[in-house]
Amino acid sequence: MWHVMVYSQGLESPYSRPYAVHLFTREKPAPGEAFRLADEILTNAFPKWRREEDRLVYVGYENIPSVDADNFYYVATKLDVDNFEFKVEGIASTVPQQLASAIEEYRRKHVTLDYDDDEYTRARVIDALEYLTELGCRTRVFRTQRGYHVRAELPSPLSLEKILETREKLEEDYARISVDKAYLQKQLGFLTNLLFNSKCWVTANNTVECYEEKEVDPLSITTIRVETISIPLPQMRIELPKGVVEIDERRIKFIGRFTEKDVKAITTSIEDNLWEYAYVRMREDSDIKSKLVKAYGKISSSLARIAEKCDVRVENGTVVIHVPEHLSEYVGRLIGKQGQNIRAVEGELGMRIRIERTSPPPEDVTIRKRLQELLKNLAEG
User: What is the H or E stretch that residue 319 is in?
Assistant: First the structure.
């Protein structure tokens, strides 16, 4: 059986469609015939429908293989939009209850998702595929003119309300969900969860164009997503099991099979972990050095001058004094006889002190190492 939906184009947006006609027929009507039938039905059902802005523009076709129609039936609806929520203001139907129940039974066995292609779409499609696979669904993906269709056969039927909750969870097309909520409120559940196999529309030149969805390998869908963060990072490329993360100052580019959850987790972790690590810590190091120099000054002014010329870092809760090579002969004085100087300074600071004769690694090298460890831990987790 074919479920054919013919609908008009409103003034505000494609989803402000005041009128829609759902046709149920054994034979698939051509676009011109579908438009003619819908116009005739609307003229009889809604006498005020023929306004300049209310013209039939779209026709979508869905094949329902497990249901048969022994006759021609229709449902005509008038939709209104109030604060971005759809409401059904008028209904005209010839669909018998037996057919409506059979279609609804088919709907309850499937989850259908419609995603228009933008920078977020592919991550959401991959997210949806992972989630539906965990539910035990048999899932197929189709490329459309504007994005992707996902069709999942459930291991056992769910209520239409539960299916709608799942679609919301997977961040599917908001307007489509809103229309289906309006239909459910009017006990028109058999009209929900509808996903076209093909679609036609009238162009500005009054010609009709069509597309057929094309099935694609789910593994061919690759995330290409750029996120911006507030912390500048060194340029680097890190290979992870799901793909590659490329970092260039404040831009993080994800290339691979990253879900929306992956993108958010990695971006958030970089912000949370490295902002403090790379910048707040550097300011703290500066404060620690001032305190260190002051503490050595209480022992002798010459030790304070030596400490001032050293690189001082806080590493894993320990103050590390990196003594330059040309000052290495003064390491013993910084430590003091039997460690008395370093113990005195530790008492002043309230922190452990370690003295190194090697130069500290450049800050960007330290950040790179920390970033690689962070992302690999996230990938393994």
Answer: strand 318-322
Residue 59 belongs to a domain: yes
Exposure on the CB side of residue 11, measured as CA atoms within 13 A:
5
Query: Any bridge partners for residue 212, and if so which?
Result: 198
pLDDT of residue 365: 64
DSSP letter for 79, please. E
φ, ψ (nearest 5 deg) of residue 331: -55, -45
Question: Are 183 and 314 members of one domain?
Answer: no
Residue 318 belongs to a domain with what CATH number? 3.30.300.20
Is the model's pLDDT at 8 over the cut of 50? yes
> In terms of residues, how long is the chain?
381
Residue 191 CB partners (closer than 8 Å, separation 6+): 22, 75, 77, 180, 183
Model confidence at 279, pLDDT cuts 50, 70, 90, reads very low
Handedness of CA 98, 99, 104, 106 (dihedral sign): positive
Amino acid letter for position 162: K
- Number of other residues whose CB lies within 10 A of the CB of residue 106: 18
For residue 236, the 8-state DSSP code is E
pLDDT of 278 > 60? The answer is: no
Element housing 111 (H / E): strand 110-116
Q: Could you list the residue range(s) of the whole structural domain that residue 327 is in?
A: 278-365
State the pLDDT confidence band at 16, using cuts at 50, 70 and 90: very low
| Helix (H) or strand (E) run with residue 354 in it | strand 353-356
For every residue of 273-285, DSSP letters joined together read: HHHIIIIIHHHHH
What is the pLDDT confidence band of residue 306, given thresholds at 50, 70 and 90? very high
Please answer whether residues 66 and 3 qualify as being in contact, where contact means their C-beta atoms are separated by less than 8 angstroms.
no
User: In this structure, which amino acid lies at residue 263?
Assistant: V
Number of domains comprising the chain? 3
CA 306 – CA 302 distance, rounded (Å): 6
